[in-house]
Amino acid sequence: MTERNDTMGVDVHSGRPDEGDADALISRLRVIESQPLADRAAAFSQIYDTLQSVLGGGGGDAPGR
């Protein structure tokens, strides 16, 4: 059985989403893009943080954040 991150649907061992999860992410991004700028910034930041933790980026913020 594959261990997955509930937030993004990513296999925590391989770091790869399955196709359904990729579609879900694309759908989520489209919803975010339709929101006001301040809301988009917060939502994109949330996605960034989630992906960073799932993909093992840990250890601090990216430059400029």
What would you say this structure looks like, in words?
By secondary structure, the chain is mainly α. It contains 2 helices and 2 strands. The protein has helices at residues 19-33, 37-54; strands spanning 4-5, 10-11. A hairpin with a 4-residue loop joins strand 1 (4-5) and strand 2. The radius of gyration is 13 Å and the shape is flat. The termini are far apart. The mean pLDDT is 75.
In summary, what is this structure?
By secondary structure, the protein is mainly alpha-helical. The chain has helices spanning 19-33, 37-54, and strands at residues 4-5, 10-11.
Uncertain stretches: none
The DSSP helix count reads: 2
Strand order of the largest sheet: 1-2
SSE sequence, one letter per element: EEHH
Question: What structural class do the secondary elements suggest?
Answer: mainly alpha
- Arithmetic mean of pLDDT: 75
Q: Any idea what the radius of gyration is?
A: 13 Å
What is the count of β-strands?
2
Give the overall shape: flat
Helix content: 40-55%
Oligomer: single chain
The amount of beta strand, in percent, is 5-15%
Terminus-to-terminus distance: 36 Å
Largest sheet: 2 strands, antiparallel
